[in-house]
């Protein structure tokens, strides 16, 4: 364990009434940990609180929320000049895909202990079109609809699996994205049903879209499911995580996507629409407190 310095918990407003988290914060303060709490209300709050954490001399900034909150805090940290606070994660969202794949405890007390005291590891981030970031994954095609259009009530009732169930309900709207994807020694052109660009491994509430991705290898895993695949086989491969001949996979430090029409990518919950995307991995962009058994580390 590292020495514990001051920490600031940036809490998504949806989690502000979590009693278990409130007790965990109180317990750490009783131990003598200097732990402040800020609650986000609108987009941009997380970045302001990260700047405040720097002014306060905090050693750690903790993202308390789902994948979107984690991504917003991580992106704000990546844009800081000089010494940055370390990222801690307390998963409080519906899916918590990044935290789950990284073996971060889902119980608030355990997660908060790890976020304040855990070992510090250098991790990569991805940068899109020089101004957007993602820590976990960018999904396009069918994957975008699974992760951005699931109704809130369904999410609340069913949790992470609701993403997949809702996706099945919308198979009548399944439509491939025609695009060209290029990278170092890589070129592909065609129609893609699902595009996954992973720093982390899973999205949509537990779907292992990029199962070989690592967050400290300086690479992104690209996974495409091409539209030549028949639907039953497509579903079987998603449910059982089977390989099939219509999955294209590559590990790349950067890639470019060009499409003749607007495409939408979901960057850890944040939709980004356009015809051209340049995605670069930023090796060792930030530091994060992760458990010893973190499967996302190589």
Secondary-structure element series = EHEHEHEHHEEEHHHEEEEEHEEE
- What's the CATH class of the largest domain, please? Mainly Beta
Low-confidence stretches: none
CATH architecture descriptor name of the largest domain: Sandwich
Q: Could you say how many structural domains there are in total?
A: 2
Protein architecture, described:
The strands form 3 sheets. Strands 5, 6, 7, 8, 9, 12, 13, 14 and 15 form a 9-stranded antiparallel beta sheet that branches. The protein has a 4-stranded parallel beta sheet with strand order 2-1-3-4, with helices on both faces. Helix 1 packs parallel to helix 5 and helix 7 packs across helix 8. The mean pLDDT is 87. The protein is elongated, with a radius of gyration of 19 Å. It has 9 helices and 15 strands. It is an alpha+beta fold. It has 2 domains: 114 residues, Rossmann fold, CATH 3.40.50.10330; 152 residues, Tumour Suppressor Smad4 (Sandwich), CATH 2.60.200.40.
């Amino acid at each position: 364990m590292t020495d514990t310095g001051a920490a600031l918990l940036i809490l998504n407003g949806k989690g502000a009434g979590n009693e278990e988290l409130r007790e965990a914060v109180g317990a750490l303060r009783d131990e003598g940990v200097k732990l402040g709490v800020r609650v986000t209300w609108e987009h941009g709050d997380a970045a302001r609180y990260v700047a405040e954490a720097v002014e306060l001399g905090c050693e750690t900034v903790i993202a308390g929320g789902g994948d979107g909150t984690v991504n917003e805090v991580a992106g704000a940290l990546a844009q800081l000049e000089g010494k940055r606070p370390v990222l801690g994660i307390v998963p409080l969202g519906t899916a918590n895909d990044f935290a789950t794949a990284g073996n971060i405890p889902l119980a608030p007390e355990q997660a908060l202990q790890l976020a304040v005291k855990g070992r510090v590891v250098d991790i990569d981030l991805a940068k899109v079109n020089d101004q957007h970031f993602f820590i976990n994954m960018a999904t396009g095609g069918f994957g975008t609809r699974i992760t951005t259009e699931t109704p809130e009530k369904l999410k609340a009732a069913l949790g992470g699996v609701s993403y997949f169930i809702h996706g099945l309900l919308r198979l009548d709207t399944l439509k491939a994205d025609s695009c060209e994807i290029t990278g170092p020694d890589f070129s592909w052109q065609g129609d893609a049903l699902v595009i996954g660009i992973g720093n982390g491994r899973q999205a949509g509430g537990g779907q292992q879209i990029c199962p070989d991705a690592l967050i400290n290898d300086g690479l992104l895993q690209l996974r495409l499911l091409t539209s030549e695949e028949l639907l039953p086989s497509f579903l079987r491969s998603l449910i059982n995580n089977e390989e099939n001949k219509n999955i294209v996979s590559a590990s790349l430090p950067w890639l470019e996507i060009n499409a003749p029409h607007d495409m939408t990518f979901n960057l850890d919950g944040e939709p980004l629409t356009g015809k051209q995307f340049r995605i670069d991995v930023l090796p060792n962009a930030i530091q994060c407190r992760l458990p010893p058994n973190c499967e996302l580390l190589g």
